[in-house]
Amino acid sequence: MRYWRAFPALLALATGCAIPLEDETPADDGMSTRESSITWEPCTDTARLLRDIRPGAPGSEPGGRVRGEDGLFFTADDGVYGRELWVSSGTGGAGTFLVKDIRPGLDSAEPNELTVVGSKVFFTADDGVHGRELWVSDGTAPGTRLVKDIHASPMELGPSGLVEFNGRVYFAADDGVNGRELWVSDGTAAGTFMLENLNPGGVNSSPRRMTRTPDAFYFVANVGFHVRLWRSVGVPGATPVFEAVEDNVVFSMTPVGSGRVFFLVDNDEGEASLWVTRGTMASTRELRFFHGVYPHDLTALNGKLYFSAGRGRSGLEGEPEGEELWVSDGTTRGTRLLKDIHPGPGDSRPGSLKVLNRRLFFAADDGVRGRELWVSDGTTGGTHLFKELEPGTPGSSPTELTPIQDTLFFSAETSGKGSEAWVSDGTPGGTRALTELRPGPTGSSPSGFIRSGWDVFFSADDGVHGRELWALPFRPEDRCGPVR
Fold first, then answer.
1. Whole-angstrom Cα distance, residue 72 to residue 59?
2. Distance, first Cα to last Cα, the chain
3. 175 CA to centre of own chain
4. Share in percent of the chain as helix, strand, coil (round to 5)
5. Mean pLDDT of all residues belonging to the chain
6. Mean predicted confidence (pLDDT) in 384-408
7. CB 304 within 8 A of CB 326
8. Residue range 144-191, pLDDT digits in tens
9. CA distance 433 to 415
């Protein structure tokens, strides 16, 4: 029995309307598509330790967190059963517990690539008998099972690259006959089969870097001596949209707006070009080559792509402005430097780019105030320091920026407190630190913020329990009740 099953009903009763447990954030603008306009807020500034899963300083090191239909799924090592699948109902409900000891005893099943599909979570795991294979769980021990023993050899690499699309999970797997190809599963053995044999004859095409859009998913796979970027709508007949010789690397596919996908190509030189496609070979074109370090943090906002680029490295020429904030509208002319935040050749190194309410938040160093929190409305004039959290040149070094509903969660480091959790409602005045979990200069280093139900979960180390799972009550306004 799933003891936290009544959670959605409680939420509906409290608010008087249906609210999805999962944030629906389109790739192009970061705005919620929820029909309701309910404002959510933290109910308190003090997070709670949900359970000391592995007593003592080592901690259980929670990982792989995903929102399930009725709770947060994650992996943890309690020191008794090894790393296995766990679930938590947060600050309310039944609590935090082991779902199933998939690989009995101290040895770990090492669940990986947790992927939610409807009311179930798919993942790969090694039960010690079948090797690494595809598993599925509904949150109960009886409902956690091997989907199919795809490859008879327990030494095989196992499925990888799981992505949800139209209610099924797609992934790469090798059945020992056809090589590593594209597979699909509905959670049953009969409904788990090879979808595409892109490189026939038992030669691997090795599908990888699965990236979904609202109407398709993209992946990279090899055919012969070429590497290709493919588009699939979930049925046989994937179409290539880009092709290059096999020593090229295609990566960082990022959907933007309606039907466009930006991506990077490294032609085996350790540097990358920015490309864009509308889903056909004819519509795919190169936008710009970048010397030096790869462009990174590709992020969609208002139909454009924003990213960090321009830093050179030893012996290689970068951009004259150094590493700064760039923008692309999908045209060569429209791919340009947005703002030289650190004037001159110095690097501001924008990072952790995230969208909240049609604005881009990120960390950057202007050379004067250290690495701090910045914001942009997509224009040069509208790109500026958001708030100086730690006065002086060291800066607060914001990381883990995570927009949830209308609140930005992040980690920042300040004098005497170390790295702790912060929240912002999108205004400097509404940006504040949460209660220290590890008092003193070391900090608890919170990471992996994610909402499930009425809580925002994250991992942190309070210096006593090791790195464990914490949660902050986070609910529609006026519904926080006695937790304040």
1. 18
2. 31
3. 29
4. 0, 45, 50
5. 90
6. 95
7. no
8. 999 999 998 877 789 999 999 999 999 999 999 999 999 999 999 999
9. 13
